[in-house]
Amino acid sequence: MRKSYSYLLLVVSILFLFNACAPTTSLEKEKIISPDRLIIKLEANRRKIKNFNGSGVISVQNKEFNAKSNFEVNLKKPDSVKISFFGPFGIDLAHALITSNGFLFYDVINNKIYKGSLKEEALQKILKINLPLSDVIDAFTGSVNLSDKLRREPDNFEYEKNYYRLTYIDSTNSIEKVYTVKADDLSITENSIKKFNGEKLIEGKFSGFKNFNNVPIPMEITVSDFRNQQQIKIEYRSVNINNESQNINIELPEDAKVIEW
Known about the structure:
Layout: H1 2-31, H2 35-48, E1 51-61, E2 66-76, E3 80-86, E4 92-99, E5 102-107, E6 112-116, H3 120-127, H4 133-141, E7 156-160, E8 163-170, E9 175-182, E10 187-195, E11 200-212, E12 215-225, E13 230-241, E14 257-260
Parallel strand pairs: 6-14
Antiparallel strand pairs: 1-2, 1-13, 2-3, 3-4, 4-5, 5-6, 7-8, 8-9, 9-10, 10-11, 11-12, 12-13
């Protein structure tokens, strides 16, 4: 009798475990978002950011330059960026205002103002990175522009261990673009562009996310451009989004020397 009772208890335990596990699997499958809905949600999050303010530490490395500075950035989309650089004890070093119409760079130490039309070489001189303005804005906000993916299905779509992975193939240029997205909050934790042979061209890594108005913002950002041997790393101490009262103007002294670039 005891043997029969033990056997029955074992069977009941197995059935209980089986039934307990089965709904979890089905619930996980129900949570998976289709690729087209996922891209729409990701792009909607990016577009929710109209204004952005952040302060922290920025590091830039390339073949000719390696520096680290405290900084503050103010962005007004679609095309206005103000960046201030500070030394120890909050000493003003420089301020840059970049828009689609042109740029203004104030060298506080030497009391010189540089200004001119916006060109890639101008951005490279100011920020020491070779990126177009739109990519600079996305880099500072930790965003990934997916607008060109809204009407295109990924060539490969995976879901594993609470992460989505979307892969897009560009046969013309022999490259693939891969985006890794955390399912819980739809934060893009990594994106990369690489050749078919595996050689990485560009890689972005994002971590330390905080939620602002239901939009996940990374507090740590690293963008590596392997083609141009350059990297920009941002570590935010504070972030604020969609503050209409933020100021992107630069106060300039009357005695500063103005240099046209």
